[in-house]
Design brief:
Number of strands: 2
Order of helices and strands: HHEHHEH
Largest sheet: 2 strands, parallel
Strand content: under 5%
Number of helices: 5
Helix content: 40-55%
Distance between the termini: 23 Å
C-alpha cells in the first residue's frame, strides 16, 4: 500500500522522476506473489492500481543505495536495524507513523492480513495520512537536490 501511495504522491508533485519507491518484506514467504486481494481492493476503491506489484524480500545490500527505509512496525524496525552493517544504515530505518504527529503515538501500523476488508481500508487511511506527512517533510530536500 505505502509503495503505491508514495509513488502517486511523487508523481503528482512532479517529482516522480527524482524519487524511487519500492517495497519489500523482511520474510520470504510472499516472494513473487501479487498483493493480497483485499489490499488491491482497498487501493482500487481510492483510485490506485497496484496490480503489477510482486512481493520480494529486503536485501541488506540495498542499504548502500537507499536514503530512507520505512517500516510499519517495531518488529520490522528491529529486523532491519539488525541487518544494517553501520550506524548510518541503522539511522535510515524509520517507522512510518513517526512522520505523522497525529498518529505517532500509535507507533505500529496494524497488520490487516488476518482480519477483514474493513481493516485493510482503515490501514490504507493510516498509510495515506502518514505518507502525505512523510512526503511533505522530504519534498524540500528533493527539490533542492539533496538525497
Amino acid at each position: 500500500m505505502a509503495e503505491t501511495v508514495l509513488k502517486r504522491l511523487a508523481t503528482r508533485s512532479g517529482l516522480g522522476d527524482r524519487v524511487t519507491v519500492t517495497s519489500a518484506g523482511t520474510g520470504d514467504w510472499h516472494v513473487g506473489e501479487p498483493a493480497d486481494d483485499r489490499t488491491l481492493a482497498a487501493l482500487a476503491s481510492r483510485g490506485y492500481n497496484a496490480s503489477g506489484h510482486r512481493g520480494r524480500q529486503f536485501d541488506p545490500a540495498w542499504f548502500d543505495e537507499l536514503d530512507l527505509v520505512i517500516v510499519f512496525d517495531r518488529s520490522q524496525e528491529r529486523t532491519l536495524k539488525a541487518w544494517a552493517s553501520s550506524d548510518q544504515d541503522r539511522s535510515k530505518v524509520q517507522l512510518l507513523l513517526s512522520f505523522d504527529s497525529d498518529q505517532s503515538p500509535n507507533i505500529d501500523v496494524p497488520d490487516p492480513y488476518y482480519s477483514d476488508a474493513a481493516l485493510f481500508d482503515q490501514v490504507l487511511s493510516m498509510i495515506e495520512k502518514a505518507c502525505a506527512a512523510l512526503f511533505r517533510q522530504i519534498t524540500p530536500g528533493i527539490r533542492q537536490g539533496t538525497p
